[in-house]
């Protein structure tokens, strides 16, 4: 009977060490490290997205400004050419 008690006590002790001892703690630490890694990657991705959106908006504004400048320049050159052609035709049509 004493032998069975000692065996049961040893079994319970080993079971409690397995259930509440080092292995579960190590697993919890590994899970924590994994969660920290995933959280860090998520944070970095969010920062990159924010930076990219800001960069994309700045590029879009710059492209819009350049297109407006080019359009104004084109219209001005078109007007100058048209006026120059009109003056040339007018001077050709005028009696001398």
Question: Quick gist of this model?
Answer:
This protein is mainly alpha-helical. 95% of the residues lie in helices and 0% in strands. Helix 1 (2-20) packs parallel to helix 2 (22-93).
Report what the structure shows:
- This protein has 96 residues and is mainly α.
- The chain has helices spanning 2-20, 22-93.
- The N and C termini lie far apart (140 Å).
- The model has no long low-confidence stretch (mean pLDDT 86).
Q: Tell me how many strands there are.
A: 0
User: What is the overall number of helices?
Assistant: 2
The H-and-E topology, N to C, reads as HH
Rg is 41 Å
Descriptive key words:
96 residues; mainly alpha; 2 helices; 95% helix
List the helices and strands and how they pair.
Blueprint: H1 2-20, H2 22-93
Helix pairs in contact: 1-2
